[in-house]
Specification:
alpha/beta, five-stranded mixed sheet, globular
């Protein structure tokens, strides 16, 4: 019998919303039954992507929603990297012009070519330009909102180059979003060394804007920075599961991977 991954993920989502810190692993394990807990975690992420995609691109959502777990997961990874290429790949796949293996190859090809290496410092500013060109789609996917660039000139204490706005579909208010970019570094240990400084900077900004995105170039760095967030939320007993923009600054930090 085929695994109903969406049913499993939906059950896990519902229970995770009420789970306390330290209970998440048990919730995922219970929802998955005989399915590996990491697979359940990935299924929850894939279903979350479908939910966000429905809010920003209903046509693509409708074309993708009945696909297999593997295909949805692939597009969940591809969309923040290059939404235009992902949509084109989805169209070709639905027409039978691409196999699943062909989709994976197309996703790899849509990644930005490797830029020149340095010793252990930040790579050349081309990566920053690359992030800027992909950031809007990534933010829209995570927030489920239509985002636009902000041309307003902020005061010096919250001056960040990557600034966006959106009208909150929950309460109709104008919201401000900023993003800070960490790395990329050839020396992977620098992500851990710079984590506290980057996260505390983001937390400070969250006192003045509605959402702060911390952009990292790898899933490994993302896990490390999300672990920092989880520990901080647990320390203050924060469990935000309501709709809309959270009140507490730390609940308005999000980690975004742009490779």
């Amino acid at each position: 019998m085929a695994w109903d991954w969406k049913k499993t993920a939906a059950e896990a989502q519902q229970k995770l919303a009420a789970a306390r810190h330290g209970e998440r692993e048990a919730v995922l394990r219970a929802a998955g039954g005989m399915t590996d807990v990491n697979t359940v975690r990935r299924a929850v992420a894939a279903l979350g992507f479908l939910d966000r995609l429905k809010a920003i691109d209903r046509q693509s959502h409708d074309e993708l929603k009945d696909s297999s777990f593997g295909v949805v997961e692939l597009f969940a990874r591809w969309w923040p990297i290059n939404a235009t290429d992902a949509k084109a790949g989805l169209s070709k796949w639905k027409k039978g012009e691409l196999t699943t293996r062909g989709l994976a190859a197309s996703m790899r090809e849509s990644r930005r070519p490797t830029v020149a290496k340095t010793s252990d410092e930040s790579l050349p500013p081309t990566y920053y330009d690359y992030v800027e060109s992909h950031l809007l789609h990534g933010i829209e996917t995570l927030l489920g909102q239509k985002i636009r660039r902000s041309e307003d000139k902020p005061p010096p204490h919250r001056r960040v180059h990557l600034r966006y706005k959106f009208k909150d579909s929950f309460d109709g208010r104008d919201r401000e979003v900023v993003a800070i970019v960490v790395g990329p570094y050839q020396n992977q240990s620098l992500y851990r060394k710079k984590r506290n400084d980057s996260m505390l900077k983001a937390l400070g900004l969250a006192n003045f804007v509605d959402w702060v995105f911390i952009v990292v170039p790898s899933g490994t760095a993302s896990e490390d920075y999300n672990a920092w967030l989880d520990r901080a939320k647990a320390e203050i007993g924060l469990d935000h599961s309501a709709y809309g923009t959270p009140l507490h600054p730390i609940a308005r930090l999000k980690i975004l991977v742009i490779q």
